[in-house]
Amino acid sequence: MAELTIYPLLFHTQVTTPLELDKHSGAALRGNLFAAVWQRFCHNKAAPSCAACPLHTMCPVSALVAPLREEHIRGRDIPRPYILLPPLEGNRRMEPGETLTFGLTLFGNIIALFPYLALIINSLEIAGLGKRLPDNRGRRGTFKIQHIEAYNPVNGTRQTLSQAGKQHIETPTLHVTRVDVKQRAATLSAEQITIRFLTPTRLQHEKGLVRDPAFQPLVARLLERLALLEQEYGQGDGLSPSQQWKELMHLASEVICTNNQTHWEDVGSYSSRTRYMTQIGGICGSATFTGNLAPFHELLVWGEMVHVGKNAVKGSGWYRIESSPNRINHEKPQ
User: Fold this and answer.
1) Average pLDDT for residues 47-66, to the nearest whole number?
2) Is 143 found in the same domain as 221?
3) How many whole angstroms separate alpha carbon 123 and alpha carbon 133?
């Protein structure tokens, strides 16, 4: 399977002014990150987009938030080198002093740009997050980052990277590799698993939108996403043998959903930069799949940590496998 290194990070913050989040706040977090990186490091703000900027091949803004490759086989855009992990509690309002935790996962060689992320912490805090509130004179709620840590969701180990009041921020060395994925995969049932879709999961299959849980579309999108991430940020070429993919797709067609407890959630994501509303809704809830699942164990575990489907960068397509008492110890942002 993949040769990709993953760096999961957690940001533990304290709310400083009233802050109100939508039910699915991943898009807001992504917008906050994009704005902070763009404001701090873009040297050609007159360009309408990264694609139109002649500096994009050497620019951290492009590499982090809008990676491009003219020679890429799928066109100019390639997968983003990170995903956000939003709080999962849904709509809620937080008052000063309360705790807000969210995650950011970096992929592979993009860890070399971590110092740029360390330099935008103050911008993230000042820009605020969530809805504009009358309490804040029409501004978003703000927070103060108390500490940042890297963690391994398989074995639970942690590395403190920064603490409030200290200037120094360490570069993450704690990460997840194929060895960890294999360890996690060994705990899964070979006959039946339940997948809980924590955030809206939007899958396209054979040019159509998948509105009910089906195993083959899930496998197809996971294979595609993992290959592209490995190609751009990993150690391999990201190109699995077509025959192997064909065999996996055939096996996936024989796995059936035996208990569907999912529903569709419509979610819109508005970009103040483009002034355009994008639909990012998808499947939420749990689905139990039955069949020969052993060939898919590692693939499904990778999917837990890289997400799947459209808008993964905004926290969409986040799921957990629930098939044994030794399930993965993903942090649940508060």
Assistant:
1) 80
2) no
3) 19
